What does this fold into?
Amino acid sequence: MKQTLARWLLQLFGWRLEGARPLQERCVLIAAPHTSNWDLPLMLAFGAAFNMKITWMAKHSLFVPPLGWLMRGLGGTPIYRHEKRNVVESMADILANASQMVLVVPTEGTRERTEYWKSGFYHIARQAGVPIVPSFLDFGQKRGGFGPALEPTGDLKSDMQYFRDFYCGMQGKFPGQFGPVELQEESD
It folds into this structure.
């Protein structure tokens, strides 16, 4: 019922579903482009439309009362960005030990334009030994879905080129806020 309702709502608002539901029981799912508050409800709708239970990371301030319980109930995990909490190691351990888990990571870390993606998604996947699945919300063509999974090889530049090619031409709700698909580590 939830899947049917989500598909109907997305269609009602003019959105198309593309790609297939990821086959992996455990993976890191990239959430990009991330330029709007609409990204969260749309991500949840697309997850439901593909009949996926997702766990997603977001800034801790979204989890304060009165809506904190709802955010957790929808699969949210608070991240305290201003504190050193070994988030990558903690999430990699949780993911590695789960029998099933789709962990959604907003690679840009903010809705504002950034020159570099946060590299946590890559390191979580490598440490947990799981693939990375690119997901997308392309407001330019009102389509959303998933691309083929990538098993991270450790060759950062080559792996990131896969994501640059995948996201080429996609638009967030505010296109000017979607920065380059690049990690600062690639320059090091």
Observations:
- The beta strands are 16-18, 26-32, 54-59, 76-79, 101-105, 132-138, 143-146.
